[in-house]
Each structure stands twice: as C-alpha cells, then as structure tokens.
Write a structure and sequence with these properties.
single chain; alpha/beta; about 350 residues; 6-stranded parallel sheet; 4-stranded antiparallel sheet
Length: about 350
C-alpha cells in the first residue's frame, strides 16, 4: 500500500485540512477493506467525521488533518489484518478507529511504530485470532504475557473476561500450562449451593456461562467437552479452592467484586509454580450484603505496590459490545458521581 498526504488551501483562520490518497496493491483485499457497499468506509467516516471516496484500488480521505491521519492509520491497520488472513467484522473496524484515536490521545500504547503505523496485541488459537480493540485492551493483553498475576478492572462489555479466557486457551493449546481453572462467586458470598439440583458442574454452570461462551469461541466444542470430562478444564466454585496449590495452570477468578476479603486472600494464595492468575471484576457492581467490604476492592488497595502484579483499568471507552452499552455505562457512572 502507498499513501500521499497534501494540505488543502483554505481561507485564513480555517482549520488545517488534509487530502490523503491511499493506493492498495491487491484489488481483492481492497474490496474486502471497503466492505459490502463500502460499509466499512462509512463506519470510519461516521466515527471520525471525514470524507472517504473509493475508486478501484484507490481511496481519497479528506477532512481535518488529525481526523484524516487517524483514518489513514485505521485503514492501514485493517489492510494489514486482511493481508494476514483476517476476515473483517464491524467490530474490527470499530477497534481500528479506537486504536487510531488512542494513539493521538497519547495513551499508553506500546505498539505504536514509526510513521504512525498501528500494530495491536493479539491472542491466537487454531480456531480464532483476537486483536486488541482499544489501548487498554492492548495493555491488558500484554500484561497477561508478562505478569503472573493480572487484575482486569472495569465495566461490562470491555472484554476483560473474554480476553482472559482466550489467553488461557492459547496457553493450554500451546502446552505452556496443563490446565485451565475457572472460578466465580456463585449465588452469594457464602456460596450455599447445596439446595440446587444436579452435580457440582450443573450447580455452578449458570454462573459461569460467560466463561463457557469464551471457551467455545476459542476452542472447538468437542475439544472443550473432552477437556471438561478429563478435568483439563475445571469449573471450581470459589469455596472449593481452599487448601489447594494450583501449579502449571491458568486460574481465572471472574466477578471478583463479589468476594469477601477472606475469600480473595484465600484465592490469591493458591498460586503455584508455573501458574498464571487472572482476576476480573467491576467494583461498581458489588452484590455483597450491606456493610461487607469487597475482597477485590481491598486487594487493589493492599497489593497496589507489590512487584509482579499488574492492574489494568478499563472504562466506558473500552466497551466493545453494542454502542448503547457504552452509553448506558457512562450514564450510570454520571449518576454515581452525583
């Protein structure tokens, strides 16, 4: 792909406007980049307020210079994904725009290359490759690579749980670990599950559904079922973690805001040799009884300065579900702040 940029002559006092021409060397990939009826281009236009016109394998981007440069970075990044064999979805386009904007906002984004080129972190299994769709997702995925204990904190829809399970699936598939252990506070802080029908897996399945969904997204269903039957993937209610040392495993605690301080300490001290621990939660969604402190909140206070522990905080800008989810999260945050 080649690109050229020209500044357009405007009346004195007007904002700088840019005119960028992009030429792609593969017509088939260029067509995939544009999307059906140029839907991908329209999505970028709407998000960045630029004008994009296509003619064969050439695009012309016109708009305010910063926005035009962001559009160019996003298009360059998406074309690179296509060259690597990725089939673009609207969420990929949205992610590319998020990353391009984040680069200009000078957020922590360690993968910015020279000449403004974007390169996001990724998690790959045989079934699927997942790319970071925001600067905080990029930081989170890189934290998972380098730290043995990672806290992913933020609202629903930011990908913190999905990416944790995807990373665990990748390590299991590559033989880096022997097991995946999924845990979540079930029903209530006391986890009184006895009255529910069925065996232990059937009792906790409804509370672990998001973890299952992520597993099936990254690993073929028949392999997931075999791994569950062989306890290679284990569903462990939090109360059942007591007394264990978890080695050669990826251990994920989801909805950690609903742990008590005692439960959180018990969980964190299960970390064994060649193990990775990922704790996800949203401190704004605590369901514990009144006057009960969240173990997640306490852990973030107590462990903030401990070397080897990384905390990545997400916000409404990282929500990758339906756009209304981000608006809902933002509205509730405003109400909470008074």
């Amino acid at each position: 792909m080649t690109a050229s940029t020209e500044l357009m002559n405007l009346p004195s006092g007007a904002s700088d406007m840019a005119h960028i021409v992009l030429t792609f060397d593969d017509n088939k990939l260029a067509s995939a980049l544009y999307g059906p009826f140029d839907e991908n281009l329209a999505q970028i236009e709407q998000r960045l307020g630029v004008d994009i016109r296509s003619k064969g394998n050439q695009l012309t981007v016109k708009g305010e210079s910063v926005a035009a440069a962001q559009a160019r970075r996003a298009l360059d990044y998406l074309y690179d994904l296509l060259q690597k064999g990725t089939e673009l979805a609207p969420s990929d386009v949205d992610g590319a725009v998020r990353l391009a904007i984040a680069a200009d906002e000078q957020l922590t984004f360690p993968t910015m290359e020279s000449k403004g080129k974007l390169a996001a972190a990724q998690i790959s299994t045989r079934k699927r490759t997942v790319h970071a769709r925001s600067a905080n997702q990029d930081a989170y995925m890189r934290a998972l690579e380098r730290a043995e204990l990672v806290f992913g904190i933020g609202p629903a829809g930011t990908g913190k749980t999905f990416l944790a399970v995807a990373y665990a699936a990748m390590l299991l598939e590559r033989g880096v670990v022997d097991r995946i252990i999924l845990s979540r506070p079930a029903v209530e802080a006391g986890e009184r599950l006895g009255f529910l029908p069925g065996d232990m897996r059937e009792k906790v399945d409804p509370y672990l559904r998001p973890l299952y969904d992520a597993l099936y997204d990254m690993i073929p269903a028949e392999k997931v079922e075999r791994a569950l039957a062989a306890d290679v993937i284990e569903i462990a209610p939090l109360a059942f973690m007591r007394g264990r040392t978890l080695a050669n495993s990826v251990v994920i605690l989801d909805e950690a805001q609903n742990t008590t301080p005692m439960q959180m300490k018990m969980f964190l001290t299960r970390l064994g040799e060649n193990a990775r621990m990922i704790v996800t939660g949203d401190p704004s969604q605590i369901d514990l009884p009144p006057n009960t402190k969240s173990g997640l909140v306490e852990a973030l206070e107590v462990l903030g300065d401990v070397p080897g522990i990384v905390t990545v905080r997400f916000d409404e800008k990282d929500v990758v579900r339906h756009p209304l989810v981000a608006a809902i999260v933002k509205a509730y945050d405003r109400k909470a702040r008074g």
